[in-house]
Write a structure and sequence with these properties.
The chain is mainly β. It is built from four helices and eleven strands.
């Protein structure tokens, strides 16, 4: 889902020059199959969608934010810390928001049956985690830096290293999805998903920043990725 759906998160309307990618972007081939051919219909939410489920701290386990733990050994790859804040258009923190992330492993492979490209799986890395934002709207994950991977969108197509982030409101129908990229990736100009965000300033908001202050000496580099919901500095969201 995207910010164009009615959600508890405040977001801008979809316009030709807005920050969100369009539903139909021919360079991203699968959008030609799934983009709506007719105007969308706004369906009112039912009481069950508006009232539940409500996520509490008891629904998120203590180590769910740390993708490097919970297995027999630590995963292979470069350990990193990803932190940031979620705020609304006026800079107010979004508290107790459920964030889920998923990603490829350090070799660029997902733990999914549909991913069969010849890169090794890591038995100590499942590639998903979750946490709740605190009273300041802040979140924190520990993971490994994902690798680039091939996809069949066009000849010799490779996706830049990225992490998917999913933000939930108070119901599963209230969901926003985006991707976080890493600075200086040489694949940016070749990736139609990244380029489908037409505004260069909005596109730049999908790239995290190296954070030396949060980096833990001799343990892990840190990156910061703030998410803004609505307003002129809105973080682009996927359809």
């Amino acid at each position: 889902m995207s910010s164009r759906r009615a959600t508890v998160f405040e977001a801008v309307e979809d316009t030709a020059d807005g920050p969100d990618p369009p539903y139909l972007y021919p360079e991203y081939r699968s959008t030609t199959l799934r983009a709506p051919k007719r105007p969308l219909l706004i369906l009112p939410h039912t009481p069950s969608e508006l009232t539940g489920p409500v996520y509490g701290h008891d629904a998120v386990r203590e180590l769910d934010h740390d993708l490097t733990r919970g297995h027999a050994r630590e995963p292979l790859g470069e350990r990193i810390i990803v932190t940031g804040r979620i705020t609304d258009r006026d800079g107010r923190p979004v508290r107790s928001a459920l964030i889920e992330i998923w990603q490829a492993n350090a070799a660029g492979r997902y733990l999914h049956e549909a991913d069969q490209h010849p890169a090794p799986l890591d038995p100590n890395f499942t590639g998903s985690g979750r946490c709740l934002t605190d009273d300041d709207g802040s979140y924190r994950f520990v993971t490994v830096k994902p690798g680039a991977y091939p996809w069949r969108n066009h000849p010799n197509a490779w996706r830049p290293a990225h992490i998917h982030l999913s933000l939930f409101g108070r119901a599963f129908t209230n969901r926003l999805v985006t991707q976080m990229y890493f600075p200086g990736d040489p694949l940016f100009s070749f990736d139609p998903i990244f380029q489908s965000v037409r505004d260069p300033k909005a596109r730049a908001r999908l790239v995290c920043a190296f954070d030396l202050e949060t980096t833990v000496p001799e343990w892990a580099l840190a990156y910061r990725f703030d998410i803004v919901l609505g307003g002129p500095a809105e973080t682009p969201m996927e359809a």
